[in-house]
Amino acid sequence: MDSKNKTSRFKIIFKNIGFYLFATLCCTTSGYIGYWYSQSKNKKESELKVATKIKASQINLAVDQNNNLIVIDKKTGDYVIYEDTVGTFIYSLYAKNLWTNQ
User: Fold this and answer.
1) Are residues 57 and 69 in contact, defined by beta-carbon separation less than 8 angstroms?
2) pLDDT digits (tens), the chain, 102 positions
3) Residue 87's CB: how many other CB atoms inside 10 A?
4) Cα torsion for 78, 85, 95, 61, to the nearest 10°?
5) Distance between CA atoms of residues 39 and 31, nearest Å
6) Extents of the domains making up the chain
7) Structure pTM?
C-alpha cells in the first residue's frame, strides 16, 4: 500500500509541476512574441529623421479640412502633412513671434 501511495503522490506532484511549467512557458513565449512583433512594426518609425533648415520663401503652408498642417516645397511640389496638434503649436509660436515683434 505504501508504494501505491507514494506513486500516486508523485503523479500528483509531477502533474502540478508540469502544469505550472507549461503555463510559465506559454506566458514567456507570448511575451517574446509580443515584444518582437512590436519591434518589427515600429522598425520604420525608429529611423532617424534629418532636420534641415529652410527659408520661408522656399515653402508654402496650408491647412486641410482636418486642421492638419501641410508644408509644400515650392520648387519640387513635395509636401509633408503634420497632425493638427503640430499645426496648432507652430501657429501659436508664429503668432507669439508676430505679437512680440510689434
Assistant:
1) no
2) 577 788 888 888 889 999 999 999 999 999 888 888 877 777 665 566 677 777 878 888 787 888 788 888 888 888 888 887 887 787 777 766 666 665
3) 21
4) 10
5) 12
6) 1-47, 56-101
7) 0.42
